Amino acid sequence: MTSNKFTLTISLMIAAVLFVAPMAAKDKVGYLRVKIDPWNAGLYVDGDYQGTAAMYGHKSKELALPPGQHELKFVDPRFETLIVPIQIDAGKTTTIRRSMKALGTRVEGPFGELETQGFSNAAVYLNGRYYGNTKELGTPGQELLLKPGTYSLKIAPVGGGTPREEKITINADETLVINKTGAPIRRK
After folding, report:
1. Residue ranges per domain, the chain?
2. CATH topology (fold) of 30-99
3. What is the pLDDT of residues 15-74, one digit of tens each?
4. How is the beta sheet containing 175-179 ordered, strand by strand?
5. Which burial class, exposed, middle or buried, applies to 38 when counting CB atoms under 10 A from its CB (0-12, 13-18, 19+)?
6. Are the folds of 30-99 and 112-187 the same?
7. Is 187 strand, coil or helix?
8. In whole angstroms, what separates CA 112 from the centre of its chain?
9. The model's pTM
């Protein structure tokens, strides 16, 4: 009988941990939802790239953060960088709604295009400056227009991992496709 009581006690303890632990964990994080114009601006939280703002604009995909003060930074090469300090409360959702101020600069062509293929969620940097996300640059019609020239390319995965870094040359009226695996491809 003692063995049955011991087994029942252990079973109840395991059930309690499995039931209560997720509830307690939920109270240890808060959630961030962002509604930013432009929607494809890069989102940095406390200096770490999280993806595009659009990725966290829906209730189904909020960003879980530890409670406390955080600094949000929104970056798009066509707009002034927007920095927003926020307070995240455990178990609650904080929604940020902002519009970024356009730089108003117009660049004349000729242009070449940069496209990515096969990458998941990663930041694309050219000469050390954020230019977009591989998810958007891998979508047909979302290629990045660039002045012809040589650039230092860095593709940094969200959440860490080894970034891909290389020198690339953009030619006028040509698309350079950077594949996750394999050599770059040029298309006219």
Report:
1. 30-99, 112-187
2. Immunoglobulin-like (2.60.40)
3. 444 444 444 445 699 999 999 999 999 999 999 999 999 999 876 789 999 999 999 999
4. 144-146, 112-117, 175-179, 185-187
5. middle
6. yes
7. strand
8. 25
9. 0.77
- 107-155 tens-digit pLDDT: 788 999 999 999 989 999 999 999 999 988 888 778 889 999 999 999 9
Query: What CA–CA distance (Å, rounded) separates 69 from 187?
Result: 46
- CATH number corresponding to 112-187: 2.60.40
Q: Tally Cβ neighbours within 10 Å of residue 97.
A: 10
Contact 90, 59 (CB under 8 A): no
The two structure tokens encoding residue 151: 């650039």
Are the C-beta atoms of residues 74 and 41 closer than 8 Å to each other?
yes
- Neighbouring CB atoms inside 10 A of 61's CB total 11
Q: Look at the block and give the residue holding tokens 């650039």.
A: 151
What are the φ/ψ torsions at residue 181 (nearest 5 degrees)?
-120, 135
Encode burial over 65-80: b for 16+ CB neighbours within 10 A, e otherwise: beeeebebbbbbeebe
